């Protein structure tokens, strides 16, 4: 009916009224969210060009990875170590009496300088020792020819070693000698250099088939070969031969026929040539027994005496000069000395000196 409101129409009118009252605040919130969302979208669209999406925050400067690592790992690690050192340092200071703190600080500051000065002092002492040996062993201190010096330098020898310094005078002057020195200290040159200088100074006219003036006996073929090489390396005027077992007899016979000034060999092979009559040792002026203790250990004592006894006469001043070199001096050495050496002989002992020095160092 026109002009009348039905119940259904009344409900439709009341619903919106109730909704507007109950949801008024909700709609306001919704409107504010929509407005904020619209505003944010505009802000993001403007800042997105710079690659930044943080709401309303200014763009942040990027840090390089290297800088991050430096500021993170290195500085953090350094600071941590510094803190630990500081704590340790403070802890030690707390444990000290008040009067010792200043002394502790002074010592701490001097640690590195003391350590450095210790190394420098050690190096200086070593340098002084080497310089002293070089001065004592300078070639100018000995009657060595320029030719021999040149050949020695060719072998890398620029000065005489201690054993060579001690023995040069007695050997060069023709005195009998017992010398103790360890293997590898330069024993061969200690008799080779002065003997070569003595022979070359008094060198006679070179004759074919001349008999040896120097006989060097060694315990093994290997050692004999090395000794012969050392002689050959420092002379161009003298003939050097080496006889030992396991090598050709014929080549050795050829050496004998051509003449020998210096003969190096083992007792067994030298005795073979003597017994066959091919070798004449009657002109010997110098006899060297090298590594005497080893020859005794190998059972060569009897053979050695069989070889040299023909060249010696009882209590004769004309007997050959006798030189004994050994790392140790067993009783047989003194027996040989008494039998073949002059009553007044020289003795040099570098083994005892080195042993005493080592013992002092250990203490």
UniProtKB/TrEMBL annotation:
Chain residue ranges for the region called Disordered: 1-131
Any one GO molecular-function label of the UniProt entry: ATP binding
Record bears the keyword RNA-binding: yes
RNA-binding recorded as keyword: yes
Residue ranges, compositional bias (Basic and acidic residues): 38-51, 67-87, 117-131
Biased composition (Acidic residues): 11-20
Residue ranges occupied by any Helicase ATP-binding domain in the UniProt entry: 168-347
One Gene Ontology cellular component annotation held by this UniProt entry: nucleolus
Main location: cytoplasm
InterPro entries reported in the protein's UniProt record: DEAD/DEAH_box_helicase_dom, DEAD_box_RNA_helicase, Helicase_ATP-bd, P-loop_NTPase
Broad class of enzyme this protein falls into: hydrolase
Cellular compartments annotated: Cytoplasm; Nucleus, Nucleolus
Keywords: ATP-binding, Cytoplasm, Helicase, Hydrolase, Nucleotide-binding, Nucleus, RNA-binding
EC number of the protein: 3.6.4.13
Transmembrane feature ranges: none
Superkingdom, taxonomy of origin: Eukaryota
Record-linked PANTHER family: ATP-DEPENDENT RNA HELICASE RHLE-RELATED, NUCLEOLAR RNA HELICASE 2-A
Family of this protein: Belongs to the DEAD box helicase family. DDX21/DDX50 subfamily.
Name of the molecule in the record: RNA helicase
